Amino acid sequence: MMPESDITLSSFRLRWDVFLSFRGTDTRDTFTMSLYHALHRRGLRVFRDDDGLERGDEIQKKLLEAIEDSAAAVVVLSPDYASSHWCLDELAKICKCGRLILPVFYWVDPSHVRKQKGPFEDSFGSHANKFPEESVQQWRDAMKKVGGIAGYVLDEKCDSEKSDKLIQHLVQILLKQMRNTPLNVAPYTVGLDDRVEELKKLLDVKSNDVRVLGLYGMGGVGKTTLAKSLFNSLVVHNFERRSFITNIRSQVSKHDGLVSLQNTIHGDLSGGKKDPINDVNDGISAIKRIVQENRVLLILDDVDEVEQLKFLMGEREWFYKGSRVVITTRDREVLTKAKSYVDKHYEVKELEFSPSMELFCYHAMRRKEPAEGFLDLAKQIVEKTGGLPLALEVFGSFLFDKRTMREWKDAVEKMKQISPSGIHDVLKISFDALDEQEKCIFLDIACLFVQMEMKREDVVDILNGCNFRGDIALTVLTARCLIKITGDGKLWMHDQVRDMGRQIVHSENLADPGLRSRLWDRDEILIVLKSMKGTRNVQGIVVDCVKRRMSTPRDRSADEITWENFRRKPSCKLALEYIKEKYKKYVRDREEKAKEVVLQAKNFESMVSLRLLQINYSRLEGQFRCLPAGLKWLQWKQCPLRYMPSSYSPLELAVMDLSESNIETLWGRSNNKVAEHLMVLNLSNCHRLTATPDLTGYLSLKKIVLEECSHLIRIHESLGNLSSLVHLNLRFCYNLVELPSDVSGMKHLEDLILSDCWKLKALPKDLSCMICLRQLLIDNTAVTELPESIFHLTKLENLSANGCNSLKRLPTCIGKLCSLQELSLNHTALEELPYSVGSLEKLEKLSLVGCKSLSVIPNSIGNLISLAQLFFDISGIKELPASIGSLSYLRKLSVGGCTSLDKLPVSIEALVSIVELQLDGTKITTLPDQIGAMQMLEKLEMKNCENLRFLPVSFGCLSALTSLDLHETNITELPESIGMLENLIRLRLDMCKQLQRLPDSFGNLKSLQWLQMKETTLTHLPDSFGMLTSLVKLDMERRLYLNGATGAIIPNKQEPNSKAILRSFCNLTLLEELNAHGWGMCGKIPDDFEKLSSLETLSLGHNNIFSLPASMIGLSYLKKLLLSDCRELIFLPPLPSSLEELNLANCIAVQYMHDISNLKLLEELNLTNCEKVVDIPGLEHLKSLRRLYMNGCIGCSHAVKRRFTKVLLKKLEILIMPGSRVPDWFTAEPVVFSKQRNRELKGIICSGVLSFNNIPENQREGLQLEDVQGKIFNLTDKVFSTTFRLLGVPRTNKDHIFLRRFGVNSSLVFQLQDKYTLHLKKRDPPLIERLELKNCRILLVFEGDDDYVGDEGSLDESQYSVSQKLAKFFNFAANDPCV
Fold first, then answer.
1. Is the separation of the CB atoms in 1200 and 1176 below 8 Å?
2. Element (H or E) spanning 680, and its range?
3. Residue 459 and residue 489 in contact, taking contact as beta carbons nearer than 8 Å
4. Which string of DSSP letters, residue by residue, matches 1058-1100?
């Protein structure tokens, strides 16, 4: 046995870039050998069994370790692959590791891999007799998984040229993947899925009540990770609005932190459309308005005070039904105190030993269990971390490059000195292992940058400006799990890690902040500055000030507008308006000035070591020469200066960020400073900037950002001489007309961004010196041509000219751009594509969407060996060239909207790697038989292909297909082979009006979850339909026409087999939505309908159903029951309490309804023309009812009026029913609104009478009452109008009363301003000519008019609330036979 000191881990980071899995007898000396050498030549570390193993190793064990130690795997699946159980073990391990897998189907069919058929069937039969069932099943699962990945097919017909092209393609993909790996390491979680499922059960998202769940646990235990995973899993549950708010504890501590959080919540929940919130009370009101009207999902992470809930979620009672709120906190006491908010508590506990060990081993060794010889040490470490995921992750990552037993023993000794609860001390071990520069950078991030939510690239710029190795250091910190990079590229640090860093700085001097190295607390900073206690110790300061509202020069203020009006037409009224607006501006300016933080430059003079300074949204006064000469980074957003003062000499400044400022010119006209060390200049959103400065002498400048400098019209010619410049961003400089003609000095420029410079007509003619350019973006410019010199840009990877509608041609030399990977020319005036485009061998994406003048695609396009995405949508192309079949690795092809395209070439069969094919709106009449060869096709869209009549028999061979859209095609039937599409999940057949039958094999679509087939001519469903047991949504609605004279349903030419159809529905136990409207089914709904326990929407309108089962009450998730025009239905049985909408419109035979008092969540009840109904028992208990339609309910109107109560009428927004009298205490329209002092307008109730006497009865069917409108006028100008939705015209001639209540959050109330007039009018011109509107009245409801919630029985009528008065009005009307 080796001495312990010599034992090492086999890996240093990941030892291999690529693991090659293959069957040696099939491919070792052919394809695999060539691929290995090609990868090796490009510097990739490749493992293959005869190259990575040393003599004497236990081969199988080392193979599996090598898989764990590889970043990606290429699996060459050949005919004999499955005969080797070694290969199958490799494959199972590859799938288990979760790394990148690139399958190559070498002479095999991918569907055979998935199903273990063809050449694999005998091998698996043999294995079943030799190996345990569990092992064989793991191999089958791995084959199924890899066979379902969109890989690369290399069939027996492929020659060596195609094989070589595939190898080149794989090399490019793997090289790109390896470049991305350091920043995108997949997160590894243990036991998370089980916890998420526990929480989902507690939340029960299908129930209609409001639920608030509190998660608590110590810091670092994984509350935020768990909450994020829960949030992601709940997104699919139809929450109308969603918001996840992180780090509340730290954000609230910032100045105006609560207001900032309210703005975020309001923005998320309002869909981004919002006015800024400036006051916490306004924020509460704004949040209340949204959560009252929408089903929301809100997660509040890291709450540490109950008071925060009051400001961020308001009251629990405000939330719309079905909403869910999740709160996380370290302090269980917070949840205890918040018992009026929180329903259930859930403790996020530390991990048990086994998952702790797995998590630690993954981060320390990238494996699930310790390596040989390291088990005891790993146990000791895991025990000391106390099961905290953060500590396991950070400490494991710290050990990742520690390879010897001695290093691990040292780590254990350090951990033994730590107290059991000392998580900061555990984390500090990782910090102590950093070198001095990495420690300094870590503290900069923890104390300064992380609270600013900065992007990684921006932090790298700053660190490089400090002469640090920024990129390398961030990679190290990421590998150590001390920082993470979010999906949008921002730096993120766990608050425990951040607090550990800040504690290190705080301990530098506990009493005097001025003696510390970094300052981030606003109050401490202001004290240090005002008392002039700053010292040479201070290296970085970030002042947290309030962002001010900035006006742009193009915006005219209200006082300017009123002054202009007065000047043109003087009058006392206009003069008064001007004075009012001027005074308002004065008050606003004073408020803004009061918030402004004023700093003195002299207070920084003593801080001679200051490197980093952020003073956003503040004012700096005094002599700028007092700023430390060694300053490297200055960020001063909304700098109020017109230019930087002459006293400021930025000798060492590397990064200057003056974005969003009033800067007009950088240094002033009489002074031009030279910042020799300046590397980054950010003047984005400086709307007053008109010209760039003279940059002569700026020898280090690498990045210039001038985005959205809307008044920039001139670029100084010195810009073209900046040989150091790497990045230039001029996006949205829409007044910029030209660039410097001479750009010969820009030899190192990599990114040139000119998108949305609308007036820019040309690029510099000579681009020959931009030899390093990688990205050229000229979208939405006025550029008419690309210069001929563009062929010199041999490193260009991305060329985008979308929306350049004056660009008609490309230079013929475009094919010389040998590095080009993406070419996007959407919506240009391009007339032809040069033949040379076929020379772009590295091109991966070509997009020509909306190029309507482009009619021909050159045959050379078939030479684009790397092309993966090809988009021709809405272009003028007439045919696809036959050479398109040569694009063996094309993944996406889209020709939607190409109305001149009528066929696909036969060569399309060669597109064996295609995953998505989009043919919407083309003139294609048929698909070629060869389409069945597209073994990897997952998504096929053919919407609005009106000439398509049938699908070929080979269609069933598309075994990978998951989504098929045939909306509004003219197919008459589906092929029997469609039943072979075992992976099909979504099928859309709606508006296929020629579709008459479904094949008998239809029931074989075992994976089908979503089936939409509205408006077909189907009358029968196949017997196998009930076998679609995975179906979740079924929409087969048909809009049948009714006989206008009798109202009866016009029968189908062929009556449906109602019993068989209804019986088949009962087998679809996972259904959540079922719409069989208009099928003319008759009889009774079977009792077995109770099996549909997940059903949320049931629509059976326009059927001849006469009975609903008593078991209907068992459908506990049912929210919508839509039975309109079921004209034989007589009785309504007990219904489930979950119901929100019940539609019985035109159920003319219904006489009796069971008591509905249990329907506490019902919002809409539609009984239009249910004229035989005699009463609605339980109506008075419906507290949630908002819309009650009783048009034509002549049999029960009096009984219902007696049931009206204050509770019912308070929430009711729409009411229409027989009646001829409106409340006389309402005011006859129109009404002039007068704002009342200290009484806010809370609502508006509109009422009136509708007369139908003049409408012929045979013309009423299908008419909708949408002629009544509320209109607001300012004198004679119409300000706003809204239409009252009162649904169908009654069959009776009796007058009807309507009531329409608008709440405080409605647009009508919001738009009604002082002195405005509100009218109730008939639409002009009307939709129903003979409808008569009369006796219209309006009630304005003010604060206090309808707020009393108690019993009013003992009060005098003059003291009644509005809802009580209405209840009494209707109760009285019920006893008056004339009403």
1. yes
2. strand 680-682
3. no
4. HHHHHHHHTT-TT-SEEE-TT---EEE--GGGGG-TT--EEE-
CATH superfamily for domain 192-347:
P-loop containing nucleotide triphosphate hydrolases (3.40.50.300)
Q: Which residue has the tokens 């902040």?
A: 513
Helix (H/G/I), strand (E/B), else coil: 648: coil
pLDDT value for 421:
59
pLDDT, average across residues 1344-1366: 90
Backbone angles phi, psi at 1299, to 5 degrees: -130, 130
Q: pLDDT digit string (tens) for 1137-1146?
A: 999 999 999 9
Find out whether 1081 and 1021 touch, Cβ atoms under 8 Å.
no
Residues in Cβ contact with 46 at an 8 Å cutoff, skipping those fewer than 6 apart: 16, 17, 18, 19, 20, 36, 39, 40
- The whole-number average pLDDT for the span 1221-1228 is 94
H/E segment holding residue 261? helix 257-269
C-alpha span between 51 and 443 (Å, rounded): 44
pLDDT beyond 70 at 669: no
Residue 219 — very low, low, confident or very high, per pLDDT cuts 50/70/90?
confident
- Burial of 1300 from C-beta contacts in 10 A (0-12 / 13-18 / 19+): buried
Question: Pairing state of beta strands 241-245 and 296-300?
Answer: parallel
Active-site annotation, residues = 90
Which pLDDT score is estimated for 186? 41
Question: How is residue 466 annotated by DSSP?
Answer: T
Pairing of strands 1332-1342, 1241-1251: antiparallel
Distance of CA 953 to the CA centre of its chain: 39
Asked whether the domain spanning 192-347 has the same topology as the one spanning 7-183, the reply is: yes
**1073 φ/ψ angles, rounded to the nearest 5 degrees:** -135, 130
β pairing state of 1268-1274 and 1317-1322? antiparallel
Residue whose tokens read 């068992």: 1114
Phi, psi of 1259 (to 5 degrees): -110, 5
pLDDT in tens, 1239-1271: 889 999 999 999 998 888 778 888 889 999 999
Tokens for 1372? 């009285």
490-524 per-position pLDDT tens digit: 898 888 888 899 999 999 999 999 999 999 998 89
SS3 label, residue 572: helix
- Residue 945 near residue 967 (C-beta atoms within 8 A): no
pTM passes above 0.70: yes
Residue 198, CA distances (Å) to 203, 218, 335, 653 in order:
9, 19, 19, 54
Domains of the chain by residue range: 7-183, 192-347, 353-542, 558-595, 683-783, 1209-1373
- Provide the token pair at 1277: 């100008």
Greater model confidence, 254 or 103: 103
Percent of the chain with pLDDT over 90: 55
Q: Is the pLDDT of residue 127 over 80?
A: yes
From the CA atom positions of the chain, what is the Rg in Å?
36
Lookup: tokens for 107: 């002479």
Calculate mean pLDDT across residues 964-984.
Answer: 94
Find all residues with CB under 8 Å of 339, minimum gap 6, and list them.
none
Residue position matching structure tokens 């975020």: 264
What is the Cα–Cα distance from 76 to 63, expressed in whole angstroms? 16
Q: Which of 3.40.50.10140, 3.40.1190.10, 3.40.630.30, 2.60.120.620 would CATH assign to domain 7-183? A: 3.40.50.10140
Answer yes or no: are the C-beta atoms of 1028 and 1005 closer than 8 Å. Answer: yes
**Short-list 117, 189, 105, CA closest to 154:** 105
- Greater confidence (670 vs 1239) lies with 1239
Provide the residue type at 846 as one letter.
Answer: L
How far is Cα 75 from Cα 105, in angstroms, rounded to an integer?
8
In the chain, what is the straight-line distance between the N-terminal and C-terminal CA atoms, in Å?
103
Q: Show contacts of 1155-1164: CB within 8 Å, 24+ apart.
A: 1156/1182, 1157/1181, 1157/1182, 1158/1134, 1159/1135, 1160/1184, 1161/208, 1161/321, 1161/1137, 1163/1187, 1164/1140, 1164/1188, 1164/1189
